[in-house]
Amino acid sequence: MSFAGTYELQSQENFVPFMKAIGLPDDIIEMGKDIKSVTQIEQNGNHLIVTVTTGPKVLRNEFNLGEESEIETLTEEKIKTTVNLVDGKLVVQLKAVHSVTEISGDILTNVMTLKDIIYKRVSKRVA
């Protein structure tokens, strides 16, 4: 299954409570809540490069599926973790945050869970 493509954020649920829970400052949350972020995924077999651009902020992670890699989180912390492909979905544990990304047609859905807060992002392929 290929995740490759460029996706623009269409909708998100629980952005503010989730960002507060992971410790982002209020000014950053306020600035980011109305910006349509763009996710670009390059994939060559099990090697992926995921770049998320939200306004001036660019988060880029490069990893091989099933191999431990250093991943930068939303709080700019770098942690060692493994992204796995499970039932066609990208699954990763980022400390206390569990992240699942799946693709269905032109829709990319990312769900991040921290305790009882579920943050859902839905993006549509634009290229």
TrEMBL record:
Can you say where in the cell this protein is located? Cytoplasm
User: GO: which molecular function terms?
Assistant: lipid binding
Residue spans crossing the bilayer: none
Name one cellular component (GO) term: cytoplasm
The answer to keyword Transport applying to this record is yes
Question: Highest taxon of the source?
Answer: Eukaryota
Q: Which UniProt keyword terms apply here?
A: Cytoplasm, Lipid-binding, Transport
Family as reported in the entry's similarity comment: Belongs to the calycin superfamily. Fatty-acid binding protein (FABP) family.
Can you say what this protein is called?
A: Liver-type fatty acid-binding protein
